[in-house]
Amino acid sequence: MRHFLTLLDVTEDEAHALLKRAAELKSMQQRGEAHPTLAGKTLGMIFDKASTRTRISFEVGMYQLGGHALFLHSGTTQLGRGEPVEDSARVLSRMVDAVMIRTHAHEIVQRFTQYSTVPVINALTDLTHPCQILADIFTFEEHRGDIKGKTVAWIGDGNNMTHSWINGAVTFGYKLNIACPADYSPDETLLQAARDMGADVSISSDPLLAAKDADLVTTDVWASMGQEEEQAEREKAFMGYQVDERVMAYAKPDALFMHCLPAHRGEEVAASVIDGPQSVVWDEAENRLHVQKALLEFLILQT
Ligand code: CP
Ligand code: NVA
Fold first, then answer.
1. Active site (annotated) includes residue 129
2. How far is the CA of 167 from the centre of ligand 2 (A)?
3. In CATH, which of 3.40.190.10, 3.30.70.330, 3.40.50.1370, 3.20.20.100 is domain 136-279?
4. How far is CA 266 from the centre of its chain?
5. Which of 169, 170, 246, 250 is in Cβ range 3.0-4.6 Å of 211 for a Cys bridge?
6. Residue 218 pLDDT > 90, yes or no?
């Protein structure tokens, strides 16, 4: 039984095979070639938080693979009325072939996984967002080739996206330069564990230093889902952390810009950057579909 709760749940070889399969699935889809490898299979999608890309990509992905996805918003299931996670995991496992969860505490997904007899996919927790990083790395490699040895600059909040970029540095071997305000730095335990596994990660509070000679510059919102009330306080703390043309000028001339979306133009990113020639955010969003189809095949077909 395999699950995908963080990028550390797949080996380097498996991660590369996933991206290779994603490229095949993408070209089959573009050629209009049917690929119903998951015919008759179902995916339960539990959402405790809002989503556009994640819901659409998983739902469309299952359909394109010949299967079916069920949108289970916590507000309209018994989970939202307090039915234990452990019971929900056992019930869903009896009926669906895999479960995808987007929720708050990472521990909820871990508890669900303990009681699930089908593969579980983390579709974002407060701690990590591994599906997004797989799509981001796939997108980088489509444009620039192997990401190994390249430099990725993360500018902004030390949040779930940052944590997955840190874990990805173990599996994919890129150098990660993080620039964040001291009070918003990534989780120390996760960072230390990744460093112990060989991740090359630097942390500073200087966006220009982080961006220097980077092959990819990336950022995310300053207030994540669940932190809406901290918006004003965070806007103050993150002043000077906007990815603008000055920051991009420190990166390599052919550096790419990425953002998992949704974005706040004028806050973490200038409109001229996200809507400019170095931005690949629309490819990045589309690639969620292709990469997650490969992930669904990988997890469901081996169980
Ligand atoms: N990037 C991402 O996960 O988007 P959604 O919140 O729209 O799913
Ligand atoms: N850090 C953001 C990512 C959204 C896809 C959040 O958790 O809201």
1. yes
2. 17
3. 3.40.50.1370
4. 23
5. 250
6. yes
